[in-house]
Write a structure and sequence with these properties.
about 25% helix, elongated, 4 helices, about 35% strand
Length: about 130
């Protein structure tokens, strides 16, 4: 957060000071679901690895180096956090990149919700 003091207009005699707060978001949050052809169970580490596979396939080394945190996992749904300046690329990768699970079945991720605020993806009035 940065506070900026705005000087008042020099033509007026009023010495009013305006204070503006500028905030930059650090993270972007997604509610995602893993969609598979067959009913299966995935360990948390495997789920994370699949996310990283998708990011690496779509974005190359940029995706491989992206910081991703799984904040909540109730298979097949999860809430993840990515850097705000890379969220559009992560959203694209999650939407269009299919992958193969360890057992050979095909799967893909579906973005259910996205928000700059964690509470924006934790719950939905539509569920």
């Amino acid at each position: 957060m940065m506070n900026v003091d705005m000087p008042s207009d020099s033509k007026t005699t009023d010495q009013t000071t305006f204070r503006t707060t500028i905030s930059k978001q650090q993270f972007y949050y997604f509610a995602i679901a893993m969609v598979t052809d067959v009913e299966t169970s995935v360990e948390p580490q495997q789920y994370y690895d699949y996310i990283m596979v998708v990011l690496r396939q779509w974005l190359g080394v940029v995706g491989a180096g992206m910081s991703v945190d799984i904040l909540d996992l109730k298979y097949p749904k999860a809430i993840i956090r990515v850097p705000f300046d890379r969220y559009k690329a992560a959203w694209q990768a999650m939407t269009v990149t299919p992958f193969k699970q360890l057992d050979g079945t095909s799967a893909h991720f579906q973005v259910l919700r996205g928000s700059a605020f964690a509470m924006g993806v934790v719950s939905s009035s539509r569920d």
